[in-house]
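Please annotate this fold before class:
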Amino acid sequence: MPKAQPTTRDRHTTPQVRPTCAGTDSGLLRAVVAGEARLTGEQALTLYHEMPLLELGRWADRRCRRLHGDSIRSYVIDRNINYTNVCTAHCTFCAFRRDARDADSYTLSTEELLGKIAALSEIGGTQILMQGGMNPELPLDWYLNLLQRIKEAFPHIHVHGFSPPEFMEFVDFFEAPGADLREKLLWVMRRMKDAGLDSIPGGGGEIFARPVRRRIGYDKCGATDWLTVMNVAHELGMFTSATMMFGHIEGIADRIHHMLLVRQWQDKAIADFAAGTDDAAAGGRYKAFISWPFQRQNTPLGRMPEWGRQDGEQGEFPGDVVARVDGDGDDKAHPLFAKRFRLAGSTAYLRTQALSRLVLDNIYSIGSSWVTMGPHLGQVALFFGANDMGSVMMEENVVSAAGTTYCMSEAVLCKLIRGAGFIPAQRDNQYNLLRLHDGPDSPDLRVKDWTTQRVEMVQHGASADLESVELSITATREANSATSS
């Protein structure tokens, strides 16, 4: 099959805010869709709370189509490799971490890691997402040797590895020289890049607002450090992603503050590292934003009471009382802040994702989180601002340790995209389209017996029937069509 041509990406002129407009003003939103205006934090907050869900989804979908067209939605074939679960951090939302002395702690050997990559390569995979706990027993040479071995054996595999919290610990573990944090990060990152690291994933983003972050991510780097790591990667010409994990103790304004910080630092990366060039993709930057709800099972945070389930609990959620769109909330503003959580269900997820597409005018891709939300909702998310279905997810350990996650084959993923009315296309890390599946040899169109293709629920060992998934999205498409007319 001939390869599809790369898409036109990242051509961005910073739009101006129109602070006097209401967030729900149709003229403002038309300008946002066209890339001629950007939302303020207060406008975004108004949109979240006041605009009907399907209407918000339609605006996000229009912006998505403006950037990515009406025909194609993408995915990647990669493998999520968690090379160690030994970690110095004690995040209250994490069920994956272990202390080195724990019986079920592990660190994969280089040969084990190479074996996993070989299995990925055999099915046409192009990328590994490699992250782990922050293990102080692993020296810099362990990482450099690993990266070199990977590139020697699999030069065609893109290494998307090591999140900002890991790099913050690398600076300390490896005693990196330098007068300040930036110099120390450059010292470590240059060596890893030279050894074979291609890009950096957005793990550890969680929520940036300080009152929330210091409660859920004990011993983990703060927002400025996280963003600085990414900015250093951008300086070195690497592309990265940004993430957000929501639906716990945070308020809605905290989610918006998180998006605004990503947008602000993306502006900085474009201005600092791509200015003065005609190449639209020059300089490192964030390529994608992916958000997903907190999975509570098996986590310390998930054991606290859920808001509204106790006698006498009513009124505004504590996180909303504390949260501000500037991130400067007062954690003493409510006595039950960080003592109650509020899970994010399907509508909250879709609303948050749609808002991210409208707020993040300088981020190329918005990813659907079917891994946590399931194939039904992941497919619906393609009508709420997402242009990308992420990975077939050969392997996932971190989120599945805390709750149900899903895995499915390339054929199923293509069928879900096609069932939503789009042509599926395999992409690479930079969102170049590698294979456009518009013919009879497409992975889903070659399947004769769909009972051999199952959507697996990793945590509980159950499965979902693809036919029911297809029926679900058909009904959703009809509903969207009816409300759009």
About this structure: The domain at 33-484 is CATH 3.20.20.70 (TIM Barrel). Residues 1-8, 396-403, 460-485 have pLDDT under 50 and may be disordered. The longest helix spans residues 252-273.
